[in-house]
Amino acid sequence: MVSAVEQRRPTYLVTLNAQYLWQMARDAAFREYVLSAGLIVPEYAIVWAARRLGTPGLEHIGGIVLLREFLAVASRKGFRVYLLGAKTDVVATLAEQLRRRHGPGFVAGWHDGYLSPADEEEVGREVRQLRPDAVFVAMGLPRQDWWIRKHGSALGVPLCMGVGGSFDVLAGLKPDAPLWARGRGLEWLYRIYLDPRAYLRRYMTVNAWFVLQVYRARLRRR
Ligand code: UDP
What we know:
This protein has a six-stranded parallel β-sheet, sandwiched between helices. The protein is globular and about 55 Å long. The longest helix has 26 residues, at about 195-220. The chain is α/β, with parallel strands linked by helices and about 220 residues long. It has helices at about 1-5, 20-25, 30-35, 45-50, 65-75, 90-100, 115-130, 145-155, 165-170, 180, 185-195, 195-220, and strands spanning about 10-15, 40, 80-85, 105-110, 135-140, 160. Uridine-5'-diphosphate binds near residues 138, 141, 143, 165 and 167.
């Protein structure tokens, strides 16, 4: 991530998980775009599946952990970031916290993730004008990835990363999953516990589908 910025190399980063694979299985254009990413970071489900399919050695890095680490390094290196996504109060709170922690220039700009077509153009213009080093897009998938595909290369921003619901957690407005869940790829269980209406159906469907795919692939290999 740092070298993408330092070498001004336009890089789309995906933290790949079961939800991405589910969406990719249903949408060939999305699949193609995700597979074109310059950096693909495997989340726990991918590491788990790879082990079962005979490819050990991948390490799990959670998207939020990665983002936190990167923000700290980015600040030391003098990079500037743009935050796009989540509700206005969430992203405003996060921008304010980051500016307090890393200096007022650290957050080049921000916008909430509920964009009308006019807002979309406006955000594109703003990002081109502000020239941040990284744009984090927190609108959930596939919306965030489509935004990056549509605008990413035209923006001249080295690093674009889709970060899902991370702004809510980083801003402290939603609790991060407890350690027992984080180390074991069980963040989804915690999210269901916090908000069953939003997540129960989604995770039950996606996870069941994913586990089935992995075991089917395993059988085929045998
Ligand atoms: N969101 C957004 N614009 C939209 C829909 C959602 O900015 O049109 C935000 C939402 O506020 C939340 C994030 O996208 O902060 C996605 O959260 P979710 O938990 O659905 O996605 P995940 O983390 O599972 O990718």
